[in-house]
Amino acid sequence: MRAEPVRTARLTLEPLAVHHAAEMAEVLGDPALHTFIGGSPETPEELRDRYTRLVSVPPPGREESWLNWVIRLDAPPGDPGGGADRLVGYVQATVIHDHATVAWVVGTPWQGRGIAGEAAVALVAWLRERGTATVVATIHPGHSASSAVARRAGLTPTGGRVDGEVVWKSGPPRDRRASE
């Protein structure tokens, strides 16, 4: 499985490329953003090195796909360049057979606008269209905004924990006709 562009009403999920590093360093540069995701802001050079590895090295071991996209906030029609059409975050999925583990991050200036939810919904739909039956995310129990994104993407919390984070899961889509 390979990442390909995914479009929504306001966003384009672009497959990650090395040239995204400088702009993404700005997007991910707020230390507060790392409260729940861990780590610290990376320099453009550090991101360039990481992105080079992500796009050029196949994942180790099993039949596994590492899929990474940057989130581009598209300029609205007729916008003469009023600040849109820029990168605002990323989504990712690790897919093994018909199971995917997903994550999303949106830079602090663009949070609270529904961007992460819109991107996560698009990502889960894209995975489903390609036969992914189970989608999982792990979310810090204190991160209510990310929990809302998971809910919007059709995931529900389970009793499971991984490294202290709550496991959210969505099973195979139900056949609506079967429940009517």
Please provide a written account of the structure.
The protein has 180 residues and is an alpha+beta fold. It has a single domain (6-134), classed as Gcn5-related N-acetyltransferase (GNAT) (Aminopeptidase). It is 29% helix and 31% strand. It has helices at 21-27, 34-37, 44-56, 115-129, 144-152, 176-179; strands at 6-7, 11-15, 64-73, 86-96, 99-106, 134-139, 156-162, 165-170. An eight-stranded mixed beta sheet has the order 1-2-3-4-5-6-8-7, with helices on both faces. The radius of gyration is 16 Å and the shape is globular. It starts with 5 loop residues before the first strand and ends with a helix.
Write the layout of secondary structure elements.
Layout: E1 6-7, E2 11-15, H1 21-27, H2 34-37, H3 44-56, E3 64-73, E4 86-96, E5 99-106, H4 115-129, E6 134-139, H5 144-152, E7 156-162, E8 165-170, H6 176-179
Parallel strand pairs: 5-6
Antiparallel strand pairs: 1-2, 2-3, 3-4, 4-5, 6-8, 7-8
Tag the structure with descriptive keywords.
disordered C terminus; alpha+beta; 6 helices; 180 residues
Q: Give the strand line-up of the largest sheet.
A: 1-2-3-4-5-6-8-7
Oligomer: single chain
Under the CATH scheme, the architecture is 3-Layer(aba) Sandwich
- Main beta sheet, described? 8 strands, mixed
Tell me the series of helices and strands, N- to C-terminal.
EEHHHEEEHEHEEH
Rg calc: 16 Å
Q: If helices are DSSP runs of H or I spanning 4 or more residues, what is the number of helices? A: 6
* End-to-end gap: 34 Å
Shape: globular
Structural class: alpha+beta
